[in-house]
Structure formats: C-alpha cells, structure tokens
Amino acid sequence: MISLDANSSPTPEELPPEIDGLRMTKQRREVFSVVLAERDHPTANDVFSRSQKRMPTISLATVYNCLEALVSHGLVRQVNFEREPSRYCPNLSDHCHFQDEKTGTIHDVVFKEGVNLADFLELPQGTEVSHLEISLKGRIGSN
Amino acid sequence: MISLDANSSPTPEELPPEIDGLRMTKQRREVFSVVLAERDHPTANDVFSRSQKRMPTISLATVYNCLEALVSHGLVRQVNFEREPSRYCPNLSDHCHFQDEKTGTIHDVVFKEGVNLADFLELPQGTEVSHLEISLKGRIGSN
DNA sequence: TCTTCGAATTAGAATAATTCCAATTATTGC
DNA sequence: GCAATAATTGGAATTATTCTAATTCGAAGA
Question: Assign residue B104 a region: left if phi > 0, alpha if psi is -120 to 50, beta otherwise?
C-alpha cells in the first residue's frame, strides 16, 4: 500500500516496479508520484507540466495514458466537476469533493461515521452501484 | 408552475410568454417543451434533433443558448455523468441520478424522507453549498 | 402603424479536453 | 540476445461546447 502521509510522498524511484498488477513504468511512476505529491486535485495538464520538470520528454498523451491506467487500477481517483477538465486525486478513502467557488480549490469531504448510500437514497431494489460521485460547490465561511 | 404530469406535457404554444422573469421566445418554448415532453435526460444534441421536427430552422447554438437560459433560471437541471455530454432534466424536485451501465438509461433517484446533506457529510463548518450533484452508475437487478 | 433598440437567433468558426493513430522504443519471457 | 508484447510519443482527429459577427425579432413608445 502506498503511503498517503502528507509529509512524505514517494519519489518516482521509491515506487515499486509493480502495484496491484499494474506494471509501473518510468512514466507511470513519475505521473503517480506527481499525483501523490501535491494533493491539490491537479488536472491532466497540471500533472503534465509538473512531470515535465523531472522528465522533460514525457508527452501529454502519456500522461493521459498513465492517469487512465492508474485510475482503472484503482490507484487514483478521477474527479469531475460539471464540465470542467477532470482532476485526479490519490485519496482512496471513501470521500467526495467540495469546490470553493471563490478560489476553485477542491476539498475532500468525508462521510460521517457509518453512513451508507442506501440510508439516504431511495434506490430501486436490485440496484448495484459500481460508481458514485458526489460533487459540491459553494462558499466557505465569510468568503 | 409548469405541470410535470407525465401524461400531458405542454406544447410550445401552451407555454406562457414569460416564466420566472425569463422571456419565452418561440425557440425557448420549443426547447423547453422538448425537455418537458420526454423525460429521458436528453443531450443538447437530442434536444436539437427533436426540436428540428417542429422547427426545422432552429440552430444548435440556439438550443445551447436556450438550455443555458432555462438552466440558469432554474427551470431545467443540467445533469453530468463524468465526461459524457451534459443532459437535461425538467424534474426540479430534490433528486439525483443513476445511470444503468448496460443501457445508458438515466433514472431519477430521490432522497429518503427528511435526510439532508449535513446528516451524512463531514462538511467544514461555515460551508454554504450552492450546488450539489450526485451521480451513480451501476446495474439494475439481474442485468 | 411605424420606428427604434436591445435581446435573441443564426451559421459557421474557434476552442479545448481528450482520444486516436501509426511509428518508435522499452520490457518481458524464453 | 530475440521475438513478442506493451508502452510511449507527436501529431492529427474528435467532439462537446462556446464564441463571433451579422441578421432578425419583438416589445415599447411615438
């Protein structure tokens, strides 16, 4: 399990050659470490420009490929706010997202202890939810 | 208030010249009546082609303009599933959306009696939510 | 009714995020 | 080391949506 400790995220070199059956190529390690490093929900473009610092030859297509690989292997979450560009989040714990309308900043929001979907939604019986996305927008405090 | 009775949705001609301070032009009436008529969460393109049946001269840009006017006046809701094209929904009651992965069909899902956000989310104090979108994906029954 | 003026509509161009493609390069298993 | 497979690359293509500039509409007043 990759550490989510905010104080020390792994450098690309510290990432193992394979995670959860996903072969960690140089580029995937770079991209993953970028997403792990600054947990500010970067867009693919953000990840691209950050990755370029250490790996100037990486291409945007590769960043998209790597993000897609990481997302489909459940190592990173893809976060959408309406029709804005997708963002990427390494926090795998059950949570949703709140965007401060003033600054655009995105905050992770956790569910209260012990709540689950069926508790607050009138889901048709037999429904199997494979994917859930909750996105909030608004203001914080007096801003 | 526009009737949401599933059995009889208003024809464009039946819509008033103004709703909630929004001037209902011929095109807006057409677009609105299309969204009210088939509550299948059509995309802008769907609305465009349906509108063209009665009004062959309407343009796609106008459909986008009209939808945007209707959405920003709170007469229609814009519904997003990840990065798919936006869909439009005339159901203004508090609800969210479930997409059947097999068919792509979108179903309205209502909240259980009396639940509200603060009950299940650990929102930072002072948070004012202006917009909330909950999108589910999955399968229904044995499909 | 005629005129005026702001708003709405239109067609088509522009934009921007993302995906696709074909060629090259890296990696794995033998 | 060699073939087979997978990943990367740059650039082109795609697609939903927005923008632009010109035209048309429609309400309000003369």
Answer: left
Report chain D positions within 7 A of protein CB atoms.
6-12, 15-20, 25-27
| Euclidean distance between CA atoms A20 and A13, whole angstroms | 17
Is B4 an 8 Å CB contact of chain A? no
Quick one: tokens of B127? 């948070």
**What is the reported pTM?**
0.92
- pLDDT in 10s for each residue of chain A, 143 residues: 554 555 689 999 999 999 999 999 999 999 999 999 999 999 999 999 999 999 999 999 999 999 999 999 999 999 999 999 999 999 999 999 999 999 999 999 999 988 887 788 999 889 999 999 999 999 998 76
**DSSP string of B18-62?**
EETTEE--HHHHHHHHHHHH--S--BHHHHHHHHHHH-TT--HHH
Strand order in the sheet with B127-140: A106-110, A95-100, A127-140, B127-140, B95-100, B106-110
Please state, in angstroms and rounded to a whole number, the distance separating the CA atoms of residues A69 and B52: 41
